[in-house]
Amino acid sequence: ALTEPALALGWDRCLHRPFRRETLRRSLVGDEAEDPRSPPPPKRPRRDATILLVEDNMVNLEVAAAMLGALGFAAIDHAENGAVAIEKATAKAYDLILMDCVMPKVDGFEATRRLRAAGYAGPIVAMTANALERERRRGAEAGMDEFATKPLGQARLAEILERWVGTSR
To answer: Which residues of 4-35 are buried (b: 16+ CB within 10 A; e: fewer)?
Structure first.
């Protein structure tokens, strides 16, 4: 009933509750073959690029991991909070850390501060639903290289990956 007016307003998709997790994932990630607006996948993805995805919400984690996979990035590690992220990033070199900001135990801002203090120089991109300017400042002050607002679409994620990780052409 609400789908047609929503589409008329320019919405791409409309979900009706209740919905299954897979329906949500498909709606957010989409099918690149069906959507010509989706960014083209990298010609030869950097399969050797290692990404640490720091996210405490399992749905957000699954969606982000699916988008990364669709863009050709397969070497993805996960940390459920900032404390685990610090352990993993000090034990292994990552090409990129995608860091949620609001998490239990150690938040993304504090985790980034500690990583930078320990000498971690790799790119850290903040991912948060909070788009306020003061949050962007907090991220920059903590040492985050970029600030991305959730929900993060595939085009925006591809842009971040191209900037910080790149692809083989």
So the answer is: eeeeeeeeeeeeeeeeeeeeebbebbbeeeee
pTM of the model: 0.72
Would you place residue 39 in the very low, low, confident or very high pLDDT band (cuts 50, 70, 90)?
low
As given in the structure block, the two tokens for residue 27 are: 């709606």
Q: Which one is the CATH code of 38-164: 3.40.50.720, 3.60.20.10, 3.40.50.2300, 3.40.50.980? A: 3.40.50.2300
Q: Which two tokens stand for residue 69?
A: 């996979």
